[in-house]
UniProtKB/TrEMBL annotation:
<dbReference type="Pfam" id="PF13340">
    <property type="entry name" value="DUF4096"/>
</dbReference>
<feature type="domain" description="Transposase IS4-like">
    <location>
        <begin position="113"/>
        <end position="272"/>
    </location>
</feature>
<dbReference type="InterPro" id="IPR002559">
    <property type="entry name" value="Transposase_11"/>
</dbReference>
<dbReference type="InterPro" id="IPR025161">
    <property type="entry name" value="IS402-like_dom"/>
</dbReference>
<dbReference type="Pfam" id="PF01609">
    <property type="entry name" value="DDE_Tnp_1"/>
</dbReference>
<protein>
    <submittedName>
        <fullName>IS5 family transposase</fullName>
    </submittedName>
</protein>
<feature type="domain" description="Insertion element IS402-like">
    <location>
        <begin position="10"/>
        <end position="93"/>
    </location>
</feature>
Length: 287
């Protein structure tokens, strides 16, 4: 029986996949260099990564990281920003998708797109009035494109007042792994809710090579029942993916001031979701 570990613990299996992607610290960066016997040595990369996962999972503030376990919170946050600037978190997401594609196969044929809003009381970038909260300031939105099993393929963050359709082209263009052109157009479908209906948005979908399926939730369910009662509606899978993101408590309410920090945490969550979709015999167990 496999022992369950805490959700923020980085197992040896997971670290084997993460470690090769950790950015090397530049010799030009003298901020971490020290004279012999002076100051504290740099924190091990695995400890830093585990601290970042701890923040992502628990939702705690950076300064609230347990000092007895991780040491200086400011040093952890500094390394987090360094890794974000080096593109580490997106690279880890790409690696997760690559392994998922190799072991299971990305379900390219039926993809789904949708956005989800969250409160962002401290955000200074990619933030706007929340139309679902009486127009109060301090809201952000995560736009997702997922494959047929709900694994995230593309992610864009905007203010909550930005309609999903306004960033549709960006979301479809931002897929982090590229698919070989399918031999037939019928092998590339995109499901979206009625909010994406409109000639301009349908053209955007078609320009990216998709066959659009843009209908309301009830209408989609009725169509499926009429055609084959055993089949289920397909668009709901993107809503499931948003719920997976919300299980990372740091993403449920956005407290990150900078867009780059919030996007990096979303990329890390996307990487974990992708790795966890790898078949069980080679899966990574971390909470």
């Amino acid at each position: 029986m496999v022992k369950r570990v805490e959700s923020w613990v980085v197992t040896d299996e997971f670290w084997q996949r993460v470690e090769p992607l950790i950015p090397a610290r530049s010799a030009a960066d003298k901020s971490y260099m020290r004279k012999p016997g002076a100051g504290r040595p740099p924190k091990p990369a695995r400890l830093v990564f585990e601290a970042i996962v701890y923040v992502l999972r628990t939702g705690c503030q950076w300064k609230a990281l347990p000092k007895e376990r991780f040491g200086s919170a400011s040093a952890i946050h500094k390394r987090f920003l360094e890794w974000e600037a080096a593109g580490f978190f997106e690279a880890l997401w790409q690696a997760g998708l690559a392994e998922y594609d190799q072991m299971e196969g990305i379900a390219w044929r039926w993809q789904s797109v949708d956005g989800a809003m969250m409160k962002a009381p401290l955000a200074q970038e990619a933030v706007g009035p929340n139309p679902t909260d009486r127009g109060k300031k301090g809201g952000s939105k995560r736009h997702l494109l997922v494959d047929g099993r709900g694994v995230p393929l593309s992610l864009v963050v905007t203010g909550a007042n930005v309609h999903d359709c306004k960033r549709l082209d960006d979301v479809l263009a931002a897929i982090v792994v590229k698919r070989k052109a399918p031999p037939h157009r019928r092998s590339k479908h995109l499901c979206a809710d009625a909010g994406y209906r409109g000639a301009e948005h349908l053209r955007t979908i078609e320009n990216h090579g998709y066959i659009p399926h843009v209908v309301g939730r009830r209408t989609e369910a009725d169509i499926i029942k009429q055609r084959d009662p055993k089949k289920k509606a397909r668009r709901w899978i993107v809503e499931v993916c948003h719920s997976w993101f919300n299980r990372f408590r740091k993403l449920l309410v956005r407290y990150e001031k900078l867009e780059r920090s919030f996007v990096a945490l979303n990329h890390l969550a996307a990487a974990i979701i992708a790795f966890r979709k790898v078949p069980a015999d080679v899966n990574i167990i971390y909470g």
